[in-house]
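Budget justification note: compute hours in this period were largely spent on complex prediction jobs such as the one shown. Inputs:
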Amino acid sequence: MKLKIYYIDVKDVRFGKETNFENGILTINKEEMIQKVNNECFSELEINLAYPGESCRISRVGDVIQPMLKLDNEEATFPGIIGEVTPMGEGETLKLRGIAVVETYEMPLPRNHFIDMSGPNAVFTPFSQTINIVITAKPIEGCEKMAYGDALKQTSLTVAKYLAQICKNAIPDEEEILSYNYNSEIELFDKDMNRLPRVVYIHQYLAASEQIEQTFYGKGYYTSLPMIFHPLEFFDGAMINKNFLQSMNADVSYFYQNHPMIKELLSRRGKDLNFSGVIYCHTPWALEEKKRNAMFAVQLAKNVLKADAVTITKEGGGHPQIDMQQLCYFCEKANIKTEISFFELNTTSGKYEEVLLFYDENVDAITSFGCLEKIELPPVDRVIGSTTFAGAPNPINEKGNVLNNWDIRGAMSQLGENYFKSIKY
Amino acid sequence: MIAVAESVGANRIFPAASIVYPLGNPVLQRDKEREFRVSLVKKALNMLTE
Amino acid sequence: MTKWKIVYYINQFFGQYGGEDVAGMGMVVRNEAIGPALNFQQSFGEQAEIVSTIICGDNYFNEHREDAENQVLKILEEYQPDMVVAGPAFSAGRYGVACGTVCALAEEKFGIPAITGMYPENPGVIMFRSKIYIIQTSNHARTMTKEITKMVSLSKKILNKQQIGNAKEEGTILRGLVRNVRCEKKGTTRAIDMLLKKVRNEPFETETPMEKFDQVEKAPAIKDLSKATIAIATDGGLYPVGNPDKMPFINSNRYAPYYIGDKEFLDGRDYCILHRGYDNEFVLESPDRLVPVDSLKMLEKEKVIGKMYPYFLSTTGLNTSLENSKIIAENMIKRLKEDGVDGVILTST
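Corresponding output:
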């Protein structure tokens, strides 16, 4: 299967009378766009622009999405949510670089996140470097939470698709061809490839319910058995966060659209490894179910994908570590070597002894994606979104707020889009 | 979270029904659930005598 | 060129006043570098100056702790050094405690960076390692020159505000702390590099090593349950509606007791939950699923247990640090013991 991705670099974004894209500058008629994407659940819809280097803080950030468009089937863009359910990962897709669509939530969320466009906290997230098209929508009175969440997602994805449509006739700045086949006959006889270790990636997700956070083709899979997906589907908008009304564990959609771990494995395929596939695996609550679920995932890895080695990433905090431990246990039993990676969320006191919740000799290769650290928020001139922020005693634009690095949207990614690690000292 | 409890050295660990309902089962009728809960608590109490 | 000002602390022996016979001597301040301080000065070079050496008897420091601390504070206030160095104390316990105390004071009261050196089994290590850097030394002063070199190297990094590496790189004793550093390689690259090393049977180092927790001794069994008072405690974050005690929703360091009294069961309308680590729906519907009042009340009536303790103890067990867990537990235990409770059922989500 082959996916051709065209990239267009957007150098500036402005509001103007005529919507167009010329010489790298994207001009948007704001009223026209608001009319296009508004929703009856909103009493008010605002679209603001935030530029890198500005003294600006985006507050209560929900999802961050990369504008994209399925060029050969525009109706299928973001399948299952605003697009038709169609297999992704093939054909031609357009993605815009240098900009991002950012949601802010005007309803209470379990945790709040922010993005600083400048200052000491900007370095933790790539979204301080993108021009952000920020969507702030106020719910109508009596609006039901789920309805608001769905409406916001409809709007933000429609904006993401619309922006790509505006640019679609421009000459792309870069072309990328991704190609991957499961059990291709040609590759079966490729001696060089067969000498390399078969590495399978287990994407462990944490779903609180069907309608929350990470979805694949628009649906959440919180009661599912492990599944095998095609690596290229991820780069084509198949995986998108629905809403964050019950938890804020997942990475942003922008990272799914450019899945860093799958990217890594694709780029090394044929060089030092034979990338053998992706298993999508849930994180159940009960211990018995964790064991069963891990066992099924490893059976897929072993029997279907013939893994020699497995790398695992997770979402969420403490109890998902136990699932990783179970996966390692069953893998090592099946003679599959394992490595796991995660963000060390348990280190609220800065002490090392709280990083791992288990002791298991099967788990001897752990990559750190960083640890929890306190950060100070400097005052800013401008805030997009509400100034009340969970965990911040003062309004979020004022000084005196001390939060965590994990509260920055796009920071400490557990999928590995992250240059930080923790050291023990 | 039994594995966690074991790792930190707890000595008497009784497996609860679920993380989201440690002593119960929402599928059962209220009075049947109460019976179920009493039986779990009894077993847990017996651990204290060992 | 401005020189870094350093105040150096040593004991009576290294200060050349004598041995155990003068371990009771009080604090003396000399405006010059003496003994190890002189070695340090020579090794560091021109950029630093030992503005004073504090010499104190090990017995005096430990027996007159408060006085000694006050004197140190006065000295630091007077000299306003850029850094404080103490020891190294090797395996000498009293000396190690004194060095650790001096350094911790400098850090905590004045924000002055301070380091010392000790042998890992020195009691000063466990007392002070989370507060200051301690260079790992041998257990004998023979290696003084080597240890001073390490201390100088670390001091230079601290004074020049350079990034301090991990314990192995710097030769320090593990402080048991963790912090972030930025890497050249992305997380995914490091993850696959590590996995492939493992596959090829090459040596690799995990970035997150595992630690074994200490074993807790089992409390003796209850002999007669029908005479016992049983309490319920929970970390599921169940509190009366409105959270009157303003219990925290994360990393709690306390618990709150709630009166059960004559209630036969807990009514979901009277309670709220402050714990985002699990789906609260089922427990809110019927809090007995978390705090089994109905069951214990029934078992009390049936004389299976002697008595149900009339309070349940509640806290929120989300991202609770080990230290806070210990504090909460100690306080819960204190109350339960005072009130004659024999056994506890702790429910956890």
